[in-house]
Amino acid sequence: MTQASVRTLVRDPRYRMFWLGQATSTLGNQLTIVVLPALVVPSRGAGTFGLLLAVESAVMGVLLLLGGVVADRYSRSVVMAAADVFRIIGVGGFLLFASHGPLAPLLVAAAFTGAGAALYEPAHRAALAQVVREDLRQRASAIDAATKRVGGLIGALLAGVLLSGVSPPRTLLVDLATFMISLVTLVWLRLPRIKVEQERQEQGLRAVFAEAKTGLVEVRRRPWVAALMLQGTAQVFFLFGPNYVLVPMVSQDATASRRSAG
């Protein structure tokens, strides 16, 4: 990646706004992951936290197959903005019901965050091609990947620092602010909708499922893609999932032990 190409990207106001939205959204995702167990586990227990993750993951898994199809049929910035609205509603629900109140609204909040993640990622990847000209897309994709990794690390660090100094609800307010910033950038960006054939527009929901089926067929034709998807699924089941649940449980037990010893 040459310095000249990076400067060209940075000088483009549309790319700067697109990148800012991605960076703040990445921070928000990581903040949610770290802060939510700090709110839920002490008052409701690790079982409830695991149930929230199950609901969020189930909704995400169901909608993720349709996320790319939706991004191809509507304005990608609008789809991403809708995803941020879903996540704002979800985080707001966490703020209201994570530590007290009925369980059902908390599960609905988890469903909203799962739906937001499922819609955002495919639309974000597709939108990059609209924001950046073709000769800069490879470099922009590299920056995109680096932003996700670095943003995830910074988000986790920021969450830890905030939790050590302020209460979890106030930290969750910072989380809400990140998604609101992302939403503002997307409203400003206003990417045009990709034109589709009139026949596809008229077919409606049936065409959406047909295109999703076509995508699955293409995956079957490329075994290496299926292998990557299988590897990622295994990571989610045996690494990410247990990590999200077990770390808060161990932390809570250690905290309780220190308090009883003191």
Question: Which descriptors would you attach to this protein?
Answer:
Growth Hormone, Chain: A; MFS family permease; globular; mainly alpha
Describe this structure in words.
The model has no long low-confidence stretch (mean pLDDT 81). The chain has ten helices and no strands. The protein is mainly α. The termini are far apart. It has a single domain (3-195), classed as Growth Hormone, Chain: A. Helices cover 89% and strands 0% of the residues.
Structural class designation: mainly alpha
Series of secondary-structure elements, N-terminal to C-terminal: HHHHHHHHHH
Number of strands: 0
Main sheet specs: none
Name of the CATH first level: Mainly Alpha
Roughly how many Å apart are the termini?
55 Å
Q: What is the CATH architecture annotation?
A: Up-down Bundle
Organism: Streptomyces albogriseolus
Protein name: MFS family permease
Short description:
The chain has 262 residues and is an all-alpha fold. It has ten helices and no strands.
List the helices and strands and how they pair.
Layout: H1 3-11, H2 13-44, H3 46-73, H4 76-97, H5 103-131, H6 137-165, H7 168-189, H8 198-203, H9 205-221, H10 223-261
